[in-house]
Amino acid sequence: ISLRADTGWIRDANENGVNLIASAARIETAGGVGEKANAIETTLATIAIAAGGDVFLAESDGITIGTVGPVAANRVQSNASTIILTDAGDLVGANAAASAVALSASGAINVAVPVAVTDLSLQTTSGDVTLQGLVTAGGSVAIDTAGAVLDGNGDAVNVIADGLTVTSVSGIGSGNALETKIKNFHAANSTSGNIELINEGG
After folding, report:
1. For a tag site, which of 12, 50, 82, 182 has the least CB within 10 Å?
2. Cα 25 from Cα 191, distance rounded (Å)
3. Would you give the end-to-end CA distance of the chain in angstroms?
């Protein structure tokens, strides 16, 4: 799926019904996506976003913030002929440098590629959050997971932000510390695993 809005906002018009079902979706908009009280509901494996406003997404399963290639579609002209429209190129990660992105999921969340936002909120009700791509936030990053927060990129930095708040059940960087460049850190881990973090300063 490819959604593009050169002006305006992409909003949810069906309340709690699922809006997008596909293996992958790319969303490009000059405005935002969804609203805090009415997120866009998805059933996707992979998503990529570029937005000028805040983004609110609710995934029914697990999801990867990744790369989505161009999508080709037939457009019917006024004379009944068709032309093929294709996206310019790959869309990578979540890019909302002047805005916030909030993603909740009923399964695991994998940040596979870079994310650049003002504020980022990741929440899972089942499964882990894996930080593989670099997360850069001008403000804060908040992660609330029913599983663990995992380092998916070895010794590379996971998060650059002013503040990082993490709530987990089974560890934060346990056995493979998260690498960060942050000024403030708040963490709570309730059941098992360790809290391990190497901070290079914000």
Report:
1. 82
2. 35
3. 37
Structure token pair of residue 15: 């309340």
Least Cα distance to 153 among 121, 117, 179 occurs for 179
Strand partners, 42: 20, 59
Q: pLDDT tens, position by position, for the chain (202 residues)? A: 999 999 999 999 988 899 999 999 999 999 999 999 999 999 999 999 999 999 999 999 999 999 999 998 888 888 888 988 888 899 999 999 889 999 999 999 999 999 999 999 999 999 999 999 999 999 999 999 999 999 999 999 999 999 999 999 999 999 999 999 999 999 999 999 999 999 997 6
Alpha helices in the chain (DSSP H): none
Rounded CA-CA distance 44/198 in Å is: 33
Distance CA 60, CA 188 (A): 25
Residues making up the chain, counted from first to last: 202
Is residue 48 within 8 Å of 72, Cβ to Cβ?
Answer: no
Q: Which residues, listed in sequence order, are joined to residue 160 by a DSSP beta bridge?
A: 136, 181
Q: How many beta carbons lie within 10 A of that of residue 135, not counting itself?
A: 25
Q: DSSP letter string over 154-195?
A: TTS--EESSEEEEEESS-BSTTSPEEEE-SEEEEEE-SSS-B
Distance CA 192, CA 157 (A): 24
